[in-house]
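Appendix B. One record, verbatim.
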Amino acid sequence: MYQATEQYLDEQGKQLARQAIDRYDSIDVKKLEHCFVHGDIIATNTLKGSDGKIWILDFAVSNVYPKIQELAVMTSSLLADGSNSLSLKERANRVLQAYLSANGRIAGYDQTVLLDYAIAGAAMEFLGGHKAKHIDKEDVEESEHWISIGKQALEEALA
């Protein structure tokens, strides 16, 4: 994704993306627990029923991934509101604590690298927004949204 979008990034964007890639590359993905995950739990893939239950939609990218993929996507996307009220690190901690409080199990190594995995998720939003905007010529408003929340998360997490 970086190679496809690099020409559309300013110097700061390139630096943020490269830092995120370096942090992701430092993760030993083979050591992470893998399981079947949805992989894309974002606001547009969730629906709250009239009974208060949350429904998860669109399983197009579901597959066997690192278990923390789900938590990282929730951290970098689902909980991002653009107000910067909670940092990416604070969101990662809240997601992890909520998961553990609900009797979810996450291995120690996975907990250690969750923030770096969430940073990679923010980079994918940032780069994916640029791809959608400049290459795919898709909805500019939505593309700008992904660029904005991705960049905001990267700026504060990598400062």
